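Hey, I'm writing a tutorial for new members on how sequence and structure tokens pair up, and I'd like a real worked example in the thread rather than a made-up one. If someone can provide the structure for the chain below, I'll link this post from the tutorial.
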Amino acid sequence: MTARTGWGFDAHRFGGEPPIVLAGVAVDSSRGLEATSDGDVVAHAVIDAVLGAAALGDIGSLFPSSDPKWAGADSIAMLADAMDRANAAGLAVSHLDVTIVSEDVRVQPHREDMRARLAEVMGLGPNQVSVKATTTDGLGLTSREGVAAVAVVTASTI
């Protein structure tokens, strides 16, 4: 068995159709995020982390935004596909740590639902999924224009 780590990042601007969806959970019904898919920055960051740990490329190589078939796609379904590919490549994810970066999208009321949804789609227990939030104290993209997420997965080869 070989230990692996994967890291992912994603960010989207405010805009598009509501709601804002994070980790498959609608967290803000008054705004949306501009994206080809549903704009779920958490799922997108986790996809890149999983693919990175499995050395299978990145989200753009599997789900290119230039392909119209991904318009409005459910990012949690995309994550399930990435997990299937990683598992088929002999990778077992054992832990996920996510940080959501936003000045005003409230994570705390939805944290446990997000953890449960990610655990479900990734085949993990709730104690193997961490979801945190932070701000940039008024600096940069996430203070004025959107939401970002960073994800790290710990995994091993099987």
